[in-house]
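Lab notebook: predicted structure, single chain.

Context: the supervisor wants predicted structures on file for every construct in the current expression panel, including those that have not yet been purified. This is the next one on the list. No modifications to the sequence; it matches the entry in the shared construct table.
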Amino acid sequence: MRAITVSEPGGPEVMAWTRVPDPTPGPGEVLVRVAATAVNRADLLQRKGFYPPPPGTTDTIGLECSGTVAAVGAGVSKWTVGDEVCALLAGGGYAELVSAPAEQLMPIPEGIDLVTAAALPEVSCTVWSNVMRAARLTEGETLLVHGGGSGIGTHAIQIGKAFGARVAVTAGSAERVRQCLDLGADIALNYRAEEFEKLVQADVILDNMGAKYLARNVTALNRGGRLVIIGMQGGVSADLNIGALLAKNAWVTATSLRYRPVEEKGAIVADVVGNVWPLIEAGKVRPVVHEVLPIERVGDAHRMLDEGGVFGKLVLTVGA
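Prediction complete. Output recorded below exactly as produced.
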């Protein structure tokens, strides 16, 4: 098969579409012939050498894909050859074939084409596991999402609204602010010109910035608020005012989806299929795809995401 390989940590130019050995599904695994994959900021970090895959996982980049089942390993009964699926991966999506635990596969939601489905696994599992499972957002609460124009941000806006929350977001330009409002956000703030902690009080905050926003996020929390950190774009270390948290009975947590055990990912995937897929099929939540490019243009896709002009997800076609 062919896959994207990385010659050494570096810029987009270190990636190449080359021939590598085919993967073989082990017990409990499914081999997927990839139709499309999607680009995540974690992919850029891995390419630069800063985000290694979990031990025992392929070093091929790619945290999600869509495609058809090509083979099943021992003990797999839920999936059969020819099934159209999308999958949450620990790695390997930038390839013609990838093996994944059967628990991490999902059917394609009705009304969504196979290529577009590649944009769903990572955002849906990230948002559900953090906003709904961890932070337990409830109807009537306020959700603040940083990076509202990102893949995760555009999905979180829609999930928050679907479950009856008031949704506020930060974004980096007037155009992205407008796009977030058009998608359903109640409040959208340009973080280059406005101080969100003075304008929004939130029950749940989904944060991709980390250290840079820690103190400001704590200030923006309501009493009983929950801050979930899922990224470190603003650094890894900052002072935390424990007194401010105590005064609000608030909490802070940080999570990573990629390194969770298969059983935990399987539970998240099952929740997504049971709770999010019906919303997609009803038209209440939709995948937001900025552009679809062939896998051979993966370098261009990484540059586009790095430059910050992407609204939603970038999808790469492989075998479609």
